[in-house]
Design a protein that fits this description.
The chain is of the alpha/beta class. Helix content is about 25%, strand content about 20%. The termini are close together.
Length: about 400
């Protein structure tokens, strides 16, 4: 279980008058909230699914960007975490010892930062080119360490990754023969499968065929992948239907969001993250304005039906129909609820990862009480220097 307080506070976070524990009323809005009980349930559910299907769980830290939460994922059974940037790798190295950078690191400074990760950290890098492979290998040799390599495949998204079995074999062979790196397997991201979970049959069947062809080609070349890394939150609960996968890299499902709920990858009451906002105006009929706009929620429209940029946790029929930088416009046309100026609401954003990246900290809440405060240390690009006062979670 998570500790009910930040170690920095010496107990539950106190209000600014020092006269009691903080409640939601003490937080200045907009504020990023995490329902700790829902998050814990989400993590347990993901870990249990992976254990039931013999899959390793390597969640993507891009969603929470917080070492304390990564440590909790590992405590519950994750083999390590996935990251997308050197900053995330540096931050997560303070909490876990097995990291996959699922993004090719180009540039001397990025490579040097990776090589400066603590020696006990087992580093693996996903890449899809000889250029990225050779640069990584040279940096590893100079640093006197070995970096693992996963050859990235294009499984249908058309963003990155090698598109043919032949090219996958070619790069895997190069990795297996290059000093400084160790060929560990392959990775892919099924990000093109974003539709409702119940309607993914055809896409998952195609993914199964695509992946199978590449595993066979690699195996026949004597390069059978020990690791076949894939998965996403939209496809997570059906990942066992794709033969050959050995580990899963979901990010969003630690918190879930409006999109995840819309496609049936979670229930609405499994959304653990919300942005606390205050109603600042009801002057225009049929709407209310809150103090959370694009700089708190992100300006990313819903990919599924419904439109808008978020919905109220307590009134999911109320959609954030428009955002400017500091204004969020609530559409009241479909509800009898009428907020008062000064009333507080909790907004579930369309895409939680982008919203979290806009915040400075997360507030862990249990009921109406603030139970923890976590710095979102992985946001930004600058090198990370661990701080001794960072709160641990056990």
């Amino acid at each position: 279980m998570f500790r009910r307080a930040s170690e920095r506070a010496g107990g539950l976070p106190q209000n600014d008058k020092g006269k009691g524990h903080m409640t939601l009323d003490d937080l200045e809005t907009p504020a990023a909230l995490v329902d700790v009980e829902r998050m814990e349930a989400n993590l347990r559910r993901a870990a249990e699914y992976c254990r039931a299907h013999g899959l390793e769980w390597r969640p993507h830290a891009k969603t929470h960007k917080t070492p304390e939460l990564a440590a909790e994922q590992v405590r519950l059974g994750a083999v390590g975490v996935t990251v997308a940037t050197p900053r995330e790798a540096e931050v997560m190295a303070t909490a876990v010892d097995d990291i996959l950078l699922a993004y090719p690191p180009f540039g001397a400074s990025k490579l040097e930062r990776l090589m400066r990760l603590p020696e006990h950290v087992r580093l693996t890098v996903g890449l899809d080119s000889a250029e990225a492979l050779d640069a990584l290998a040279e940096a590893a040799r100079r640093a006197g360490r070995t970096a693992g390599v996963l050859v990235e495949l294009d499984a249908g998204m058309g963003r990155v990754g090698l598109g043919s079995p032949e090219h996958a074999v070619e790069l895997a062979r190069r990795a297996s023969e290059t000093p400084g790196v160790e060929y560990r397997g392959i990775m892919f991201y099924p990000g093109h499968i974003r539709g409702p979970v119940a309607e993914q049959d055809e896409a998952l069947a195609a993914l199964d065929v695509c992946l199978g062809e590449r595993i066979v080609a690699l195996s026949e070349a004597g390069l059978r992948p020990r690791v076949v890394s894939g998965g996403s939150t939209p496809t997570f609960w059906r990942s066992h239907e794709v033969a050959g996968i050995t580990e899963l890299r979901p990010g969003t499902n630690i918190f879930n969001d409006r999109t995840t709920a819309e496609i049936g990858a979670c229930a609405w009451d499994e959304c653990a993250y919300s942005v606390l906002a205050t109603v600042v105006s009801t002057a225009v009929a049929g709407q209310a304005v809150v103090d959370a706009g694009s700089k708190a929620l992100a300006k990313e429209e819903l990919r599924a039906t419904g439109g808008g940029y978020g919905a109220l946790l307590e009134h999911p029929e109320v959609v954030v129909k428009a955002v400017s930088e500091e204004h969020g416009l609530l559409d009241l046309a479909g509800t009898e609820w009428r907020p008062r100026v000064g009333e507080r609401v909790r907004i579930v954003p369309n895409h939680v990862c982008v919203s979290v990246n806009l915040q400075e900290r997360l507030w862990g809440v249990r009921g109406g009480e603030v139970a923890a405060e976590w710095e979102i240390a992985g946001r930004g690009r600058a090198p990370w220097v661990a701080r001794a006062q960072t709160a641990a979670i056990g």
